[in-house]
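Box 3.1 A note on notation
Throughout this textbook, protein chains are presented in two layers. The first layer is the amino acid sequence; the second is a token string describing backbone geometry. Keep the layers aligned when reading.
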Amino acid sequence: MADAQPDYYEVLQISPNADADTVQRVFRMLAQRFHPDNKETGNADRFRALHEAYSVLSVPEKRAQYDVHHQALRQERWRFAASVNSNDDFDLEQGVRATILEILYARRRAEPSNPAFSPYDLSQLTGQPREHLEFTFWYLNQKKFVTRDDQSRLTITAEGVDYIEQHRGTNIRRRLAAAATDDPARA
């Protein structure tokens, strides 16, 4: 079910409680940014996803039908999160942290003028629901490995870069676990 249809609210980066005016305003802003004719930020795939989400969420009848599906999807995601074994959950979280840092590091190197990823993009790249990544984003921000820009996009910091480079060739997941405890002997 989760792979069959994207979360249109995440695609438009809006709350499921957003009113029709907000849906339209946000769509126009994002459509302008990601339109394929926009030479700086155009992205045809993202634009198509935005248009698909808008075509559903802007029509009250379609939105009502989608909301039934969306609620079931959210319940499934949270049921999955609640069912994870706590030891496995720690390992999973450390793996996700490492993956996020590696993605942001690669983006910073490849596109220094556009080094940020939105939470939506990181959700898509990691295969994790956005609401499950909020803890990860909070942690990495508190450790000053990442920062958020004015649009809530995440960017790796110099401290994050130093951390990745200092621990290259080692098990970064184990290093992140040590950093979480602030135990210098383990890091």
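The radius of gyration is 18 Å. DSSP finds nine helices and two strands in the chain.
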